[in-house]
Amino acid sequence: MNKLEFEEFISKIGVFLARQELTTVYNFFDKNKDGQIQYDEFIGTLRVSPPLLTAQSDMSERRLAVVKHAWQVLSAKGGN
Fold it and tell me: What are 20-70's pLDDT values in tens digits?
């Protein structure tokens, strides 16, 4: 998803950021710096980025399934 789609995505889950904050967070997730956040980049970042996760270094399969479903629903119109 591109930056505009990402902004829509996070606002749908109740996160509202200033323009500079949005750019910083977007760049954090866009690991290969191609201007698109792919699912693998998104989930990979969530899996290893404290403090998003506590002592666990990986997500449970159930949590991963929820995140994947949310990604598919929220990014369906963008196709990424």
Answer: 989 998 998 999 999 999 999 988 888 775 554 444 445 677 777 777 777
**51: its two tokens:** 């403090």
Q: Quote the pTM value.
A: 0.64
Q: How many CB atoms lie within 10 A of CB 47?
A: 16
Q: How far apart (Å, rounded) are the C-alpha atoms in residues 65 and 71?
A: 10
33: DSSP letter: -
- Helix extents (H) in the chain: 3-12, 19-29, 39-48, 61-75
Instruction: Enter the tokens of residue 21.
Output: 């904050």
59 touches 67 (CB < 8 A): yes
CA distance linking residue 47 with residue 68, whole number of Å: 12
Whole-number pLDDT of residue 31: 92
Q: From the centroid of its chain, how far is CA 33?
A: 14
